[in-house]
User: Fold this.
Amino acid sequence: MSSRAVRFSILGTTVIVMAVVAPFLPSKWMTTLTYAQIFAVYAMGWDILSGMTGQISFGHIFFVAVAGYTTGLLNLYVKWPIWATIPLGVMMAVLAGLLFSVPALRLRGPYFSLITLILPLAAARLVIILADWTGGELGKFGVAALCPFPDFKANQYCNYYSLWGVMTGVGLFLVWLSTSRVGKILEAIRENEEAVEAAGINTAKYKIFAFAVSACVVGLGGAFSVHANEAIFFNSLMSLTTSLEMIVASVIGGMGIIVGALWGGFLVRGGEQVIRELAQLKLPIGTEGLALSFLERWATLIFFTLLIILLFFARQGLLPLLAGLFRRRRGEVRGG
Amino acid sequence: MALLHVENLRKSFGGLMAVKDLSFHVEPGEIVGLIGPNGAGKSTVFNLIMGILKPDRGQIFFKGQEITHWPTYKIVNAGIARVFQIAQYFPRKTVYENVEISAIPNEIFTRAPDPTPKTLQSCERTGLCEHSSHENHCICREELPGMLPQGGLRRLELARAIGTDPELLLLDEPFAGLSPAEVDEISHLIASLRNEGQTIVLVDHNMRGVMRLVDRIVVLCFGEKIAEGTPEEVARNPQVQEAYLAGGGF
Amino acid sequence: MDQVFVIVERIVIYSVLISALYALVALGFTMIFGVGRVLNLAHGAFLMVGAYTAWFAQQYLHWNLYSAFALAVALCTLLGVVFYQGLVRHVQRSPIVTLIATLACALIIEELIKIFFTTNTQLLAPFISGSIEIHKTTVITNRIIAFGASWLAILLFWLFVHRARWGKVILATAQDHEGAALVGIDVRRVYTLTWAISGALAGIAGVFFASWVKIDPFMWRDPLIISFAIVVVGGLGSLKGSIVAAYLIGLLEVLMTYSPSIRVCFSFRCFEFLGSSWVGVSSLLVLIAILFIKPEGLFGRTE
Assistant:
């Protein structure tokens, strides 16, 4: 999994499939995958910091919120166009990331994770206090749309492919970064930070850089999601569940390899949709048939349970697991 | 001018004085042995030089520049590298990738040259090449460090240190935990580095082992310098003999 | 002048009362960390399980509150043991995996409660209804009971740790678990015991927290934040520090409730600066500030 070519080809195949498959999708699935692409961007953004350096952040939803609220509110109140507010939102997320990273990185391991958990909780409280502007828990509607088409179908395609573009761009950049010298240093920090310092590398600088890139990518996803929704949704910009789902996605796909987070993102969001579809069905049991509608509410639960099972049995994640099986079958495993 | 100059260095942990007003210097091109019984404060001196510990007082100069309160990475980039007593490596990176980290410059946005040749050179100088490779062409080992024997790990440590282009190499107990055959290999390696003009400070508690390698010896006992001179002078020093007898001999 | 005195008196009485509950909330959390070096992010969810158990027994099984309370504590004790034996024991080695797993469990419990009991806010009937006058301050009787019960639980816990044989074993393990293992202490059994105690304490705290504040599927977050704040201010793993910190944070929260709020407006849109809407935020901000300025906590860390 370490080679750059392998990661680029997995990324390439995935995005090409995503591009080609779109016209054949039922409308419901198209919407699901539109948002799955944003979620994949979050997961990859999380992975470049937490997956690669081992500094686990529970609070990446904070950067989604900073970028999302910045672009949404500027657009709503100052009436700036989205091509100006989205970059501003991303800049705010990066700034928040930088401001936060400098002191946060003095904390090691669990303490770092603790403080990242607290940050989105504090932000959510502030949003509620400032409800006159932010709409509080109800959110705000009337944010400019990402796509200006009057036709629903055209709009759906436009949203899908715009977000596909964001995901592809982010994916290419992050796969390149993760296999560059910077990526090698970040991996080394995860394995032995003292040894990296002893090699003459300022680890703080690299971690802050990773923090900024991560905040930038996740913020980009957040800003686009606000305009794809045409609304500021408190629940999607502030959800602690989404914050942890980024970890779920990354752990499922395999941490620290970017393409793992990409796949994990699709598995989580796609899986949720599959569960929703199943919930429509009735099993032919008994005279009335057994309705599966209860399943709908179990989706999140199932994924968190899956996370714990993976933490127990396959901590390396599915992609490396598959790669390992594949290589073993072809007898390419070296050493013992 | 001395390459390294340590002046009145002091460090205590709680009530224990680990290093007490220590001064010594290292000239370019020489190998200095820093020896003393266990608990004499030798490793603490290295940690102070590398900026891992901060001294209570005293100064450290490298090439005439004070480096006392610099962070570790800056000291490394100034030209001091240290080989740890307990191997510090990246367990999930291959030997090649381990050595490569030292060859990567501390710049995120850089057009610095490809680190590959330097990595291979470090491997070659420390004998970490694949056996199957050509005579004059080194291919670094591709196995994980966990599969190397103790001597191989020590070579890996040396390769990672050399990769930072040090003017001064600090070796912390380079022979600890090695078999007699491996001790021979590593001391040959150190001797060959010296022949290339590498300045080295070597810490060991075993005086006999380092006698042949070093030009000069500084003897520490309970954090204090009790003797300094050529190996022959130091061996004749009655104070040193007493310290070593008290500490269990050598 | 009299008015000011009444307000000061009210702030003192309320903060003394709530702080005892906060100390109890943090007690189980800080003990798990002190003994096993595990940060249990499901601690708030334990409280929630206690609260919902008591509510369920009262509402649907028509039990009186005392038996409902006993059931909640028993169930939480069991939950603590199951949680340790089934999950934490296997992932304890890696602090990060432990954090992810315990947080995931908290969210799983939240989801389960949403599924079975909806997201509606529920109310728990108090032990004794009504209120009494202390000088010129009206206090809800149930809160005085919560205060008394919290201090009783804390004192019993202290006595157990310092007097009982098993308590001393726990203390020894907290100080040095390898040393404890060397002198023949079964460390795993000690951990199981601490998780059981932590669960029981969470159950007690959960019932009182529920009757003081509210019951809903998101209620686990506040106790968790309070626990963090207290152990970070008081130093992770120190009992005395935790109690002092609980009183500081309780005072801060009550001060926020009674501090005059400043209404800041721009073009007809307003927000309150300080005042009761800042109750939760203030402890979060203090927590963030302390973690940034003095990561080892105000009263040092017992390592």
Summary: Confidence is low (pLDDT under 50) at residues 331-336 of chain A. DSSP finds 15 helices and four strands in chain A. The two ends of chain A are 18 Å apart (CA to CA). The longest helix of chain A spans residues 152-179.
